[in-house]
Known about the structure:
CATH class: Alpha Beta
Number of strands: 10
CATH superfamily: Aldolase class I
Order of helices and strands: HEEHEHEHEHHEHEHHEEHEH
Number of helices: 11
Radius of gyration: 19 Å
Helix content: 25-40%
Number of domains: 1
Strand order of the largest sheet: 7-6-5-4-3-2-8-9
Amino acid sequence: MHATLPLLVRSDFPPLRRHALETLQVNLGYRCNQSCVHCHVNAGPNRTEEMSGETIDALIQFLVSSPNVRTLDLTGGAPELNQHFRRLVIGAREQRVRVIDRCNLTILGEPGQEDLASFLADHGVEVTASMPCYLEDNVDRQRGKGVFSASIRALQQLNRLGYGRPDTDLILNLVYNPQGASLPPPQESLEADYKRHLADEFGVMFNQLFTLANMPIQRFGSMLVSKGQFHRYMKMLRSAHREANLEHVMCRGLISVDWQGYVYDCDFNQQLGLPIRYAGKPRVHLSEISAGSLANQPIRVADHCFGCTAGQGSSCGGAFAEEVQLASSAIL
Length: 332
């Protein structure tokens, strides 16, 4: 796989400083039941990295001692495959922390996970689910044959439990990312298309659609290098940069924790091996910091950060600005 970090570290991306910490985003491990082309984590069935029980304890203790951190955002790989996933969810919910599970949907049908959907519903976990298109051919092309059908079955199961329905508080959001080297289309209109098609064809309901730009790192970045598209993709991201999006980038109120417990400014920096800068240390463990000590600290940036500020903006919560016109947003 081609390394993209050397192509990104020399950057004129604007400097950023952190606001108050509100969200703890945690990667519970790189093992996944899928191997997606766009995956910036390079996750897959053969990955063995998994967060330990001791690090799970450190996470729960951090939440206990950080009353202003009100969101725990769980990712992977497939975070549910971590043997301590459910204990972490229960520990966070006991602290009245909002928990988000970044779910690939097909995990709900894996052997041993038959009660997973009910567990999520019982504990009021928000499900943010990958669904890169509402058309079967596009999803199976990106994620593997049969993934679309399995995803629809999972969505229908979640709906039966109350997820995505207007008469419950169980939140189900979907995530779209482009099929290739282009920016996402406007989020609001695409959400309307998703809702109409999934309801009409499959009776599926959900709350919101989040559109995310593909990051030029790991598996997707390597693919761009192999096709000779990396520099053109970066040029497109740079040309679509909007200063107004800097105020809303997720790293301002979030830290990312890897499967070993080390801290980064965002999940993308984690995958590039760019730890948070803290007290002059080469890297710092979550157990060594406090939430309050991070306020107003500089954020480590590089050229991939243009992926978050291009066009309508891109974050773990979707787009920032609906009114942006995304002209010339694809590499041909």
